[in-house]
């Protein structure tokens, strides 16, 4: 089969990470070469179990390798988000242990190996802290030029954070890893918390319609996202947020991106008050200021996306009916 997309999904598997993985495993024309897990939402061991459980619920057990990665940030104590997703990261559903086991190779080594085996062919969808990718880069800096694209769910552009007033969770957990990845020169598309709140929040009648989809995958989706939904409703977000799954949806169908720009992005590592803040330099002429320090790597930063198209994709994936997206 000629796959249009070949992916590595790097994940701190909980709630919406699961939805993203389901997109990768179920969407026609997409091949997930590997799932790599990293600490973040919950400890990495549970992230790995959740990834394997997701593979099993997608009917792909034994077909997609899962590699466990970093269990802590590069320099800092681990911060977690069980208060959002439940202690198991899966809505306190406590699924039975999956049949498939994780591979013995470390996730960072697997990333390096796969990018060297298939230079220019693989895209990475990273929706956890960027620790695995930072370690992979330290092991082999040449991978910067061998990955086709890196889709990063993290940060925000001129918008509030979700763990502090200024920081999005993934960058806050390991700001040094995020800064390293953004400064290394990877071909990055950044999908920030701002885009996710504005264009990937599913609530109201749209969420009720999803609840009426009677498939195993849909029931699984609602189970793993139920604690996050409770958390959102108690904190002013009227629905299920889809930061990770809208990121992979853009990877699969880039036409979801309605507006983006290429900007330097710096991650704050020194100020505890603003730890993990993503400084997106959207100024038209920064070189005309005395503080300009020279040209810096630029990343594509998504600014607007198409909610209705994302919702159509989500509906198709949960129902298993991809006929609307079939090639003519």
Automatic annotation (TrEMBL):
Residue span(s) of domain Inosine/uridine-preferring nucleoside hydrolase: 7-311
Residue ranges of the region described as Disordered: 278-297
Keyword annotations from UniProtKB, A to Z: Glycosidase, Hydrolase
Domain of life: Bacteria
One Gene Ontology term of the molecular function aspect: purine nucleosidase activity
Record carries keyword Hydrolase: yes
SUPFAM superfamilies named in the record: Nucleoside hydrolase (SSF53590)
Classification via Gene3D superfamilies: Ribonucleoside hydrolase-like
GO biological process: purine nucleoside catabolic process
Pfam families xref list: IU_nuc_hydro
One GO CC term on file: cytosol
Cross-referenced PANTHER family: INOSINE-URIDINE PREFERRING NUCLEOSIDE HYDROLASE, URIDINE NUCLEOSIDASE
UniProt name for this protein: Nucleoside hydrolase
Species: Cohnella thailandensis
